[in-house]
Specification:
Elements: H1 2-22, E1 25-31, E2 34-35, E3 46-47, H2 48-61, E4 63-64, H3 67-76, E5 83-90, H4 93-105, E6 111-114, H5 125-135, E7 140-142, E8 150-152, H6 156-170, H7 175-189, H8 201-209, E9 213-216, H9 229-247, E10 253-255, H10 267-276, E11 280-282, E12 285-286, E13 289-290, H11 308-319, E14 325-326
Helix pairs in contact: 1-11, 2-4, 2-11, 5-6, 5-7, 9-10
Bound molecules: zinc ion (ZN).
Zinc ion (ZN) binds near residues 89, 221 and 257.
Length: about 325
């Protein structure tokens, strides 16, 4: 009962607030993995109940638009009040298995940015670290060979803190070295890399056939500022062509890997996107997009709120924030 009253009150507050300042602004949400249960090794991952509360709240309080339509209307200054978009990064299989049925239930459109090299059985470097530590029978991981300390990994808490420390240190190593290092780590852990974490060609095609949009995210998920311009062009254009032949349609939206402005991409990468035929791109700068903002630097927010009402309030607050703070 209290929830219903709070919901109605919130809906009223949101309507009034958005009428005052929420027009021609767009709030974009980022999701990655959605799992059946809480994952103690990846506490930022959504469980399906939490995800459903999010989608239900977004559908109830806001206007969930298709990203391509939202970007077009942002440019034309015709966005409805309370316009939001839902995005997923990387291409995890659980986006198809677990998130898609929820999106369809609430008729909420979304875009899925796919890193091309991992389709059909691949595994991203961060997941090799996470799954090696999750699945190993070792209680200590001696990583001196890749320049790290030894990590005690007997308990869940120890495993979680080892994962965090290793990911943070590996994140900004050059791509080839990072890939070599995570393979060494998997060997030391005695674990075979999983082949079922990312979507298959067929799942991506099915997503698209269900009315979902597909967007580019490079082939190997490099931080663009850490590779040469030539490599960046290849990463961006090969991924675009691959996805276009997969879904039989032009791919027009892109999400920068990691996505922090000036740190993970620069103006030259925006020029590469234009050259390759992209029409919009999404970052991880925090805030709402406003009319006349750069369509190649659309900010996004992430949310780990457990309740739909909390998420609705966070989205409302974001309508009044412009980028400046990054994740
Ligand atoms: Zn990503």
């Amino acid at each position: 009962m209290i929830d219903i009253i709070l919901g109605r009150l919130l809906r009223l507050i949101i309507r009034v607030s958005l009428l005052i300042q929420g027009k021609n602004r767009l709030v974009v949400l980022t999701y990655h993995r959605v799992k059946q249960e809480d994952d103690p090794l990846q506490p930022d991952d959504m469980n399906v109940g939490q995800f459903e509360r999010h989608i239900k709240a977004l559908s109830a309080f806001y206007r969930v638009l298709k990203p391509e339509e939202a970007v077009t209307r942002l440019r034309k200054n015709t966005l409805p009040a309370g316009a939001v978009c839902i995005t997923f990064d990387d291409g995890y299989a659980n986006n198809y298995d677990i998130a898609l049925p929820v999106l369809l239930k609430y008729r909420a459109p979304a875009i899925f940015f796919i890193a091309g090299s991992f389709i059909n059985g691949g595994c991203m470097w961060n997941d090799i670290v996470i799954e090696s530590i999750r699945r190993t029978k070792n209680t200590v991981l001696d990583l001196s060979v890749i320049g790290f300390d030894s990590f005690a990994i007997k308990t869940i808490e120890e495993k979680a803190s080892a994962i965090e420390a290793i990911l943070n240190q590996l994140k900004y190593r050059p791509m080839q070295q990072r890939l070599k290092n995570v393979k060494q780590l998997a060997n030391i852990a005695g674990v075979t890399t999983p082949t079922d974490l990312m979507m298959s060609d067929e799942q991506i095609r099915n997503l698209h056939e269900h009315g979902m949009e597909i967007g580019g995210h490079t082939m190997n998920h490099p931080i663009l500022t850490q590779i040469s311009t030539e490599q960046a062009r290849d990463e961006i254009s090969t991924n675009k062509k691959q996805l276009e032949s997969l879904v039989g349609e032009q791919i027009t939206s892109f999400a920068y890997p990691n996505g922090k402005p000036d740190q993970d991409y620069k103006q030259e990468h925006i020029e590469l996107l234009k050259e390759c035929g992209y029409q919009s791109a999404f970052t991880t700068a925090w805030g709402s997009a406003k009319q006349n903002g750069d369509p190649y630097q659309i900010p996004r927010i992430s949310s780990w709120d457990g309740s739909g009402l909390k998420l609705a309030l966070r989205v409302l607050k974001t309508f009044f924030e412009t980028p400046g703070r990054t994740l």
